[in-house]
Write a structure and sequence with these properties.
By secondary structure, the chain is an alpha+beta fold. It has helices at 11-21, 28-36, 80-94, 109-117, and strands at residues 2-5, 40-47, 50-59, 64-71, 99-104, 121-126, 135-141. It has a domain at 2-101: Aminopeptidase (3-Layer(aba) Sandwich). It has a four-stranded antiparallel beta sheet with strand order 1-2-3-4, sandwiched between helices. A three-stranded antiparallel beta sheet has the order 5-7-6, covered by helices on one side. The termini are far apart. The model has no long low-confidence stretch (mean pLDDT 95). The structure holds coenzyme A.
């Protein structure tokens, strides 16, 4: 398994994972837009041409945020999500960011457990962020 930056040939596989993972999936156009934006970066986990998972981050001089992370359904619970979060921490260190931010649905136990296991702390709640559900705001302090 390798971690590398997204390329355009990955988009079909990424959209397939996105569609099986979220009720409001990103479209191909949204991934394309993020691909073209200098502040966005998407890292994919790949094995012999198969995309196993991916993570999109936004990194500006003020903010470092994980926007999106998903692992292919049949490849979950194999530490691929963990590997992607560890990569985010590495990038965070390389760009001298002090914190990583993210939002998660309170109902998303697998993701919350993953983030907590990786040292993310709960900062608060953003009411009705997802329309039907609040968001839990979490952050990781790279200096802890
Ligand atoms: C959340 C997600 C990315 C986790 O990826 P993963 O590769 O399966 O996770 P890992 O194998 O690295 O698991 C790491 C830890 O997360 C937690 N976890 C993962 N899956 C879990 C589950 N089904 N139930 C409870 N905890 C879970 C556990 O604490 C696990 O550690 P452990 O195996 O030592 O118990 C994956 O479930 C996914 O793609 N979900 C759909 C998309 C999504 O919800 N993304 C997050 C949006 S905020």
């Amino acid at each position: 398994m390798i971690l590398r930056d997204l390329n355009l040939d990955d988009l079909d596989q990424i959209c397939e994972i996105e569609n099986q993972s979220f009720s409001n999936p990103w479209s191909k156009e949204m991934f394309l837009g993020s691909f073209l934006s200098p502040n966005y970066r998407t890292i994919v986990s790949e094995e012999n041409g198969e995309i196993l998972g991916y993570m999109s981050i936004i990194a500006t001089k003020d903010i470092f945020e994980i926007i999106n992370i998903a692992v292919k359904k049949e490849r979950r619970n194999l530490k691929i999500g963990t590997t992607l979060i560890l990569k985010a921490k590495e990038i965070c260190k390389n760009v001298n960011a002090s914190q990583i931010y993210l939002e998660v649905r309170p109902s998303n136990t697998p993701a919350i457990n993953l983030y907590k296991k990786q040292g993310f702390k709960v900062d608060g709640i953003r009411p009705k962020y997802y329309g039907d559900e609040d968001a839990i705001l979490m952050s990781y302090d790279s200096e802890d």
